[in-house]
Amino acid sequence: MKNLKSLLSVFILSTVFSLTLTAQNGNQQLLPEEDVTVTYNLYTEYEKMYVIGYKDGYCYNDPDCIEPVDPIPPNPKPGLGTARDGYVRGVKDGIKKRQSEDRQ
């Protein structure tokens, strides 16, 4: 179920619908051409804060750090599903990831 949810989230988040609204009357354009982008976000508050925390942890004490690509948030552990819990876990995971990359 976790893998299905992750794949579905990535698919929906990476899918962007672009519509062009244009009406023309002969050579005269009645409406300016506009690109309308619609995205869907299925992340919970836990997952949103996990991503923010992950980036904060990854770039901790490095003002020149380039933020990593958004990670796919893990499912919360039982009893630890609040936004604050997501942020804390994200910070810890971000720090671990940066340290593992620095060792290589």
Fold and architecture overview:
It is flat and about 50 Å long. It has a two-stranded antiparallel ribbon with strand order 1-2. A hairpin with a 2-residue loop joins β1 and β2 (about 30-40). The chain has 3 helices and 2 strands; from the N terminus they run αββαα. The longest helix is centred in the last third of the chain and has 21 residues, at about 85-104. It has helices at about 1-15, 45-60, 85-104, and strands at about 15-25, 30-40. Residues about 1-25 have low confidence and may be disordered. The chain has about 100 residues and is α+β, with helices and mostly antiparallel strands. It has 2 domains: about 1-40, no CATH class; about 45-104, no CATH class. Helix content is about 45%, strand content about 20%.
Reported for the largest beta sheet, the result is: 2 strands, antiparallel
User: What characteristic shape results from the CA principal axes?
Assistant: flat
Determine the fraction of residues in helical runs and give it as a percent range. Answer: 40-55%
Alpha carbon gap, first and last residue: 33 Å
Q: Name the helix and strand elements from N-terminus to C-terminus, one letter apiece.
A: HEEHH
Spatial order of the strands forming the largest sheet = 1-2
* Strand-residue proportion: 15-25%
Uncertain residue ranges = 1-25
Number of domains: 2
Radius of gyration over all CA atoms, rounded: 20 Å
What value does the average pLDDT take? 76
Number of helices: 3
Give me the secondary-structure category: alpha+beta
- How many individual β-strands? 2
